[in-house]
Amino acid sequence: MVRQKMERVGTIKEFIRGEFTCKKTVIKRDTLCTAATVAGGSIFLTLTGVDFAHASAVSGAVYDKITNAFMPLVELVKGLSYPIALVIMSGGALMIMIGNKEKGYTMIQNSAIGYILVQMMPLLMDLLVELAKAL
Fold this sequence. Notes:
Blueprint: H1 12-17, E1 19-22, E2 25-28, E3 32-38, E4 41-47, H2 55-97, H3 101-134
Antiparallel strand pairs: 1-2, 3-4
Helix pairs in contact: 2-3
């Protein structure tokens, strides 16, 4: 059984006041500090010159991250659209075979239109995003 080592680094009052200690080092809250644990030891990296990005650059970066996060879901829906359309078209063909031509042709037509729209949905969404950026 592995036991994790826990270490107390300060109290809540010290944190709220803006000072807390970590490995006998006092760190002020107004400096940006990042800690990384490497082989059981800690390395502190203090950054003093922080530049702020423009809002449009941040929104563009957020947009890219969101679209990249949803790409597996989009690919899954696009991949599932083919077998679903195939099953519905087969059902439409069976309807035509048993004499219900109107319902059969409607099923085939609707499944074909649905398949095409699902395959084109990323293109349409990109078009809408570009139109929104232009406004």
